[in-house]
């Protein structure tokens, strides 16, 4: 099979009537000669030349690419982030590469280590767990990095956070105001950043409402639908007097609603349900589900803007931005 001919920079130079170095300067934006740039661009279109990103990276250490590493690309909260990160980067000519880590710390550390290979110009990282090894790797990253999630204050990278403690407390207080007194909680793994924060917020909410925390009303799942469903069945079977369930994210809460339906319990008539993240899934569930927004879209946009500032050479101290939560009340908890 004959290999397809790939147009070269030499052909562009010949058609444009300029030197190879002039073509390189025009393509890299290193000239103010508008006439030469126009001639080079016309020649590029005529011969069908596509610059090699690998070669450009070796010469300029610039790839035009940014990576976003998150736990699960199928999670609607991360999709909301992507929908704001990608257009923000695209406006200034960057492409977005997505990497799903499965919340594997070794995978995340591997992503950080690979930054020295110059395959991207920057990274947005959203880890569920932050270990001491994460902290050390983030002290001297090879390219600019922004972390979405809670970091120790002395880690020298930009950090965008959600206040999920306050969000969980808001949800509990809402359920209490709606008349619930036996409020159960299905959390994510307690060794994760969001799992610990939401667990703390749940207990804070109970105490603020004058309710005594009861560890028997807490279950732990994996931030997935089936985990929420199985945990809710177990919880409601053992404690049929539960009159409200808070899920640590929308997937867990939707799983709980399915379990309640299987057990013949009505939402919200028998048991009220609230989720967290306020993804599109919450509004389209049946019944529509109340949920705490943790500003996924805003966190994605802010992270992209912070990264672009670093890529533009901003040497100011790292920023810590906290996006406040808000509660959207729908039929599932009224």
TrEMBL record:
Transmembrane segments: none annotated. It holds the Pfam family Peripla_BP_3. It comes from the Bacteria. PROSITE patterns: HTH_LACI_1, HTH_LACI_2. SMART domains: HTH_LACI (SM00354). Residues 7-60 form the HTH lacI-type domain. Gene3D superfamilies: 3.40.50.2300, lambda repressor-like DNA-binding domains (1.10.260.40). GO terms for molecular function: DNA-binding transcription factor activity; transcription cis-regulatory region binding. Keywords: DNA-binding, Transcription, Transcription regulation. Residues 313-334 are annotated as: Disordered. This is LacI family transcriptional regulator. It comes from Jiangella asiatica. The lineage of its organism: Bacteria, Bacillati, Actinomycetota, Actinomycetes, Jiangellales.
């Amino acid at each position: 099979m004959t290999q397809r001919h790939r147009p070269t920079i030499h052909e562009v130079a010949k058609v444009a009537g300029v030197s190879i170095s002039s073509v390189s300067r025009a393509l890299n934006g290193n000239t103010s000669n508008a006439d030469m740039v126009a001639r080079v661009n016309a020649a590029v279109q005529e011969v069908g030349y596509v610059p090699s990103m690998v070669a450009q990276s070796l010469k300029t250490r610039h790839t035009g690419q940014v990576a976003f590493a998150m736990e699960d690309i199928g999670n609607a909260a991360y999709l909301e982030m992507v929908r704001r990160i990608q257009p923000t980067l695209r406006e200034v000519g960057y492409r977005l590469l997505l990497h799903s880590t499965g919340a594997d710390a070794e995978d995340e550390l591997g992503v950080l280590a690979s930054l020295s290979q110059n395959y991207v110009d920057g990274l947005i990282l959203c880890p569920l767990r932050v270990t001491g090894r994460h902290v050390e790797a983030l002290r001297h990253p090879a390219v600019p990095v922004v972390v979405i999630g809670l970091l120790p204050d002395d880690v020298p990278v930009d950090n965008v956070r959600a206040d999920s403690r306050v969000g969980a407390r808001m949800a509990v207080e809402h359920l209490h105001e709606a008349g619930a007194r036996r409020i159960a909680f299905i959390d994510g793994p307690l060794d994760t950043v969001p799992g610990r924060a939401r667990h703390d917020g749940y207990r804070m909410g109970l105490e603020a409402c004058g309710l005594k925390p009861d560890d028997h009303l807490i279950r732990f799942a994996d931030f997935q639908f089936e985990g929420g469903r199985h945990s809710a069945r177990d919880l409601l079977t053992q404690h049929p007097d539960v009159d409200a369930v808070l899920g640590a994210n929308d997937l867990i809460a939707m799983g709980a609603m399915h379990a309640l339906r299987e057990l013949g319990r009505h939402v919200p008539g028998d048991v009220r349900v609230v989720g967290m993240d306020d993804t599109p899934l919450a509004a389209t569930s049946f019944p529509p589900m109340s949920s705490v927004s943790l500003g996924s879209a805003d966190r994605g946009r802010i992270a992209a803007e912070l990264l672009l500032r670093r890529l533009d050479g901003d040497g100011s101290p790292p920023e810590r931005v906290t996006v406040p939560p808000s509660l959207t009340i729908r039929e599932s908890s009224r």
